[in-house]
Amino acid sequence: MRDTFLPFSRPAITEQDIAAVGEVLRSGWITTGEKAVEFEQKFCEYFGCAGSVALSSATGAMHILLQALGISPGDEVVTASMTWVSTVNLIVLAGATPVFADIDKDTLMVTEESIKACISSRTRLIVPVHFAGAPADMDPIRKLALDKNIFLAEDAAHALGTEYKGEPVGKSGTSIFSFHPIKNITTGEGGMFCSDDQQLLERIRRLKFHGLGVDAYDRQMQGRSPQAQVIEPGYKYNMTDISAVLGIRQLHRLEAFNNKRTELALRYRERLSEVDEILPLVDPSYPMKHAWHLFVVRLDTDRAGISREEFMQALKEKNIGTGIHFVAVHLHKYYLESFGTHRGMLPATEWNSDRICSLPLFPDMTADDVDDVIDAIKKVLKNGTST
Ligand SMILES: *Cc1c(COP(=O)(O)O)cnc(C)c1O
Question: In sequence order, which residues have a C-beta less than 8 Å from that of residue 373 and are 6 or more positions away?
């Protein structure tokens, strides 16, 4: 057994990253400024998006997107229940109704068919979720949204470096990325709103900072124009330069990070093929490039003879950390008790919600670490079935 704990994720921070943050702290300008602008520009160059806005989180980005689109009571938003709770919470907080599309059982992503079944005359927005680093099948989803004249915004929190049919996620349409510490690059906390809709970008720039009409950072003035006017009431979701400098540095290393993640994931796949009780996710059949944000497996609980919770606990006792991405949102306490959701609504989502488990995956891991995880899994499952 390992003598040190292997967490399921750990950000890749170097001494140079720390020094760069130190420089910003010493510069006299630590909130949104040159670094944030540079990060937005580099992000656009890297992914080929028309415009981007750096924000304090992906959750904040989703909040002001809903506001910009005027999502309000009576409106419906179609998204996945197999996602992080933030999107669904915000839909509810906007007074609108989340409508959950079920997922493909083996890729964990919504499909054109599952979304179509959720569309009504009240549907205002569709939010597909790219899962674990693989892209959702966007061509048919884009066509559906266009045909029905419904806005489409991709939850790309897992999709930093993901490609769909040769095109990076974020390049066309509207996408939201996250830089939370477990994501493929981190700024501590942070998010990026990307869109090819210039009017929407302008709206997001305004709403991220009090609804002020002027966004320009002025070196001489050490801030924005004192004459800036509130065009509409806005929020406070700007990204600081302390975070942005990390983002710039991490973006340089994204490809190297993702290559390492891919190497580790392929080793997991190969070694897990010997373990019948573990079912990894399946790659989508369309052309894509995986960003390997997470290595998600499903525990075949019938075969294993132990529950997913017992499995995770036993791995923890062997110094292996794991996570759950995600407990289906419609099965959370609030949604069950106050929102009228129930088991049986979304069979593929629920089947996975009960069985998924994310194994350790981060760039600073080694092949030996993967082997430690596999050995621990084999031991745990052997004990599980024999007792
Ligand atoms: C992390 C995550 C978010 C939220 O990102 P934050 O930057 O933490 O707000 C949204 N959706 C998914 C699928 C995520 O994994």
Answer: 6, 268, 315, 320, 359, 360
